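forwarding from the other thread:

> can someone predict this with zinc ion?

sure thing
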Amino acid sequence: MRALVFEEFGGPLTVRSVPEPRPAPDGVVVQVGASGICRSDWHGWSGHDPDVVLPHVPGHELAGTVAAVGERVRSWSVGDRVTVPFVCACGHCPPCREGAGQVCLDQTQPGFTHWGSLAELVALDAADVNLVALPEGMPFATAAGLGCRFATAFRAVTGVGRVVPGEWVAVHGCGGVGLSAVQVAVAAGARVVAVDVSPGALELAAACGAEHLVDGAGDVPAAVAELTGGGAHVSLDALGAAVTCLNSIRSLRRRGRHVQVGLLPPAVGRPEVPMELVIAGELAVLGSHGMAAADYPAMLSLIEAGRLHPELLVTRRLGLDDAGAALAAVGREPGIAVVTSF
Ligand SMILES: [Zn+2]
Ligand SMILES: [Zn+2]
């Protein structure tokens, strides 16, 4: 099959022929219909993820058609149209038993723990636990984002941030997950302040419903406090950088909730969290890591009811031959790129 491969961290990303994956006994192989390009792929390529073993095929936010099924799989058949949370849970460890498969102790992640979806085929483990059926008529390019950016944003805003109507939400970093968070927060009845250093990204945030746009190069906490009458109720670092994490915490009003969504591997620098502010303001500092398959129905029903529009977030469609350049350039061009031909 054709796949995007890198042999060294930060090295060339080339499309070449590699052996096809076979399904594990409890897993499937999916013919990839679309695979989004995400900042986490860039982290993996850059050598920030200890799970990645070379040579490697990146790609973790995908949708496609089941092409082969392991002998122990009960619920899925060849031809089913599916997506999958990027965290594939085991289904039986303590967090999984508590319904928190997104922090499974024995998780696998396509594109990190094994070869990913920037390829014609991808293997997915524990299919009965993790696969999610696509609503009829949803194109693969839209559905791919449900594997990572859109579901991650949905759970960060609704499940972890617990945003309620009328609250102010600040979103720091308007890439894929940030733009998704803007849209989800607006749909939840929140008023949104979007922050980014790129005017193009802020334009997209406005199109997603952000009420105020703030230049990330300025004094962000002061701007958010001014616009919201004292600070955000909920603030998300959707980028994953020391500066956006700190700006997010400092943007909160008393008793506000910071949600860390963007990955912060030590290689990009550890933020010095101002714990004195956390105590004095009774701030909550929360982490959010994807969303378990069992939590997808609530999000899918809002999409089917027309309350959420993940399709509006795809700004570029690429062929696999252009995926390497797009992956290496993550963050340099606003919007969301999805590979739709392999
Ligand atoms: Zn991702
Ligand atoms: Zn588990």
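Residues 175 and 335 are 6 Å apart (CA to CA). thats all i got for now
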